[in-house]
């Protein structure tokens, strides 16, 4: 499939029309003290919109308190709506649209306070993620658990709509709950939700259907998933193509093609190794331990542009629906290549953290390359008082990061 579309041309995603083909990918910013967006988070996304991004994604909006991965994670609940509304208003005022990434961590969690005895997952038993938090066991979800989580995702989507978001992105990748069903690394069930890839997709498809029924006529419904898990025992890119066909069949408006797993294959996700600086600055012992384990288990990988393109091509060949390429697009030439190969949009994370105005820079002919070096040090910056920022620029404002988006300074 070939495309002659300019990356600066409009595109329809379900009921939504984007002014261009650029999406700010979801990245954890560390700008949500108390579980609500901070002034700093609203400013970050407003600046991305003002910099030309058509759709900016607010990462890791938990659909329930049990669904949180980390303390202070954003939660979509009625009390948080004024702060989300302040963020979406700021994005709209700067000419952009906003997407809420809705998620549930499952057993990938560091939150001990929960309504269930153990963290929920596709399967029960030993919880390898719990080695870092002292929660050594997880419990398999029952039908009642599934019904509750499906309802939580649908309600989260409705709350996102009420908060002024234009789209929701269901997180099905990287080892969180829906990924735990999709992945053979986590799903060992012997009922209709385990075994074959079709069975492993059954619960994520239920979630997608419920979200589409709740908001699909008014909002774009996007799915982000790992097209390859980057490990021998995990899903391959061929599996990723089959997953895409099932999500297309269920009615998703757009797929964001990520890769890798947080615990097993982080370099597959980022396309390059994490530097020493990401570890020695960590004061949080849990995070420091997690990074140390990743250093010992992950190979050294040098960054290259479009590092996921070979895998993404298999998905593009398998479906007709809109796809957003994600993975190392850091120059106009690589963006144009993605467009020429039939991908409808490009999602960018680190490059837009480094240069929030990059899209306008390209559109105005002011340059072609991005200053991001893929050093991955921005990932560790989320644990600093000002939240995520590029180490080549200015740190985030710690004072603004302490104030809720709709609160007074």
Record the SSE blueprint.
Layout: E1 11-13, E2 16-18, E3 22-24, H1 39-50, E4 55-62, H2 81-93, E5 97-103, E6 120-121, E7 125-126, E8 137-140, H3 143-162, E9 167-171, H4 177-182, H5 197-200, H6 202-215, E10 220-226, H7 237-250, E11 254-258, H8 266-270, H9 277-280, H10 285-297, H11 309-318, E12 323-326, H12 332-340, E13 345-348, H13 350-354, H14 358-363, H15 377-381, H16 398-401
Parallel strand pairs: 3-4, 3-13, 4-5, 5-9, 6-8, 9-10, 10-11, 11-12, 12-13
Antiparallel strand pairs: 1-2, 7-8
What does this protein structure show overall?
The chain has an eight-stranded parallel β-barrel, surrounded by seven helices. A three-stranded mixed sheet has the order 6-8-7. The protein has a two-stranded antiparallel ribbon with strand order 1-2. Helix 1 runs parallel beside helix 2 and helix 3 packs parallel to helix 6. It is built from 16 helices and 13 strands. The longest helix has 20 residues. It has a single domain, classed as Aldolase class I (TIM Barrel, Alpha-Beta Barrel), CATH 3.20.20.70. It has 409 residues and is α/β, with parallel strands linked by helices.
């Amino acid at each position: 499939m070939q495309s002659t579309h300019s990356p600066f041309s409009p595109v329809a995603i379900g009921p939504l029309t984007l002014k261009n083909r650029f999406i700010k990918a979801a990245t954890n910013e560390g700008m949500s003290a108390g579980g609500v967006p901070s002034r700093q988070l609203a400013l970050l996304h407003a600046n991305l919109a003002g910099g030309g991004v058509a759709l900016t994604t607010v990462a890791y909006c938990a659909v329930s308190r049990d669904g949180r991965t980390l303390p202070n994670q954003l939660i979509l609940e009625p009390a948080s709506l004024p702060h989300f509304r302040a963020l979406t208003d700021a994005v709209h005022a700067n000419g952009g649209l906003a997407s809420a990434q809705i998620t549930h961590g499952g057993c990938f969690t560091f939150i001990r306070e929960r309504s269930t005895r153990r963290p929920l997952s596709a399967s029960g038993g030993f919880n390898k993620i719990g080695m870092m938090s002292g929660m050594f066991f997880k419990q398999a979800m029952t039908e009642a658990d599934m019904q509750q989580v499906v309802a939580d995702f649908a309600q989260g989507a409705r709350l996102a709509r009420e908060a002024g978001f234009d789209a929701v992105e269901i997180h099905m990748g990287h080892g969180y709950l829906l990924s735990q069903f999709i992945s053979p690394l986590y799903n060992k069930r012997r009922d209709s939700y385990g075994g074959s890839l079709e069975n492993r997709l059954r619960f994520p498809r239920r979630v997608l259907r419920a979200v589409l029924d709740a908001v699909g006529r008014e909002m774009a419904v996007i799915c982000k998933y790992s097209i390859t898990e980057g490990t021998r025992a995990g899903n391959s890119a061929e599996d990723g193509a089959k997953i895409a066909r099932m999500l297309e069949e269920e009615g998703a408006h757009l797929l964001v093609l990520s890769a890798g797993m947080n615990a097993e294959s982080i370099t597959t996700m980022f396309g390059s190794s994490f530097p020493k600086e990401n570890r020695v600055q960590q004061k949080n012992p849990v995070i420091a331990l997690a990074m140390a384990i990743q250093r010992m288990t992950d190979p050294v990988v040098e960054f290259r542009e479009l590092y996921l393109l070979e895998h993404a091509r298999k998905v593009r060949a398998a479906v007709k629906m809109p796809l957003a390429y994600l993975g190392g697009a850091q120059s106009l030439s690589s963006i144009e290549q993605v467009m020429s190969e039939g991908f409808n949009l490009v999602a960018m994370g680190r490059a837009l953290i480094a240069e929030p105005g990059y899209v306008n820079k390209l559109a105005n002919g002011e340059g072609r390359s991005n200053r991001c070096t893929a050093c991955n040090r921005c990932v560790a910056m989320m644990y600093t008082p000002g939240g995520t920022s590029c180490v080549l620029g200015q740190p985030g404002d710690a004072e603004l990061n302490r104030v809720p988006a709709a609160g007074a300074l």
